[in-house]
Amino acid sequence: MFSVETNDKDTVVEAMLSGRLDVKAAKEADEAFLAIASQGKDVVLDMSDLVYIASAGLRALKRLRVAVRDNGKTVTLRNVQEDVMDILEMTGFAAMFSFE
Fold first, then answer.
1. Is 56 left (phi over 0), alpha (psi -120 to 50) or beta?
2. CA-CA distance, 34 to 58, in Å (whole number)?
3. At what angle do helices 23-37 and 55-70 cross, to 10 degrees?
4. What global pTM score does this model have?
């Protein structure tokens, strides 16, 4: 199961991602990410509870990054678990984001 909880601050939206961002969860992620990007703020994705990401999840992350960058803002990934980081690195996605 996948979930996104957001915390809207003055200049940044923090989103806590939990569970598995797989094919089944990609549509839900896209909808949540679209809402987050529409706020026109910098975005921090806390991935401490995200245990898996599939290619559909990677596409959702890429669409979020593009939408946020179109607003002149940034996406930062925080607390990425080792297994998820391995996937980001193997696919080249790690080079597209900054990390905390």
1. alpha
2. 15
3. 10
4. 0.94
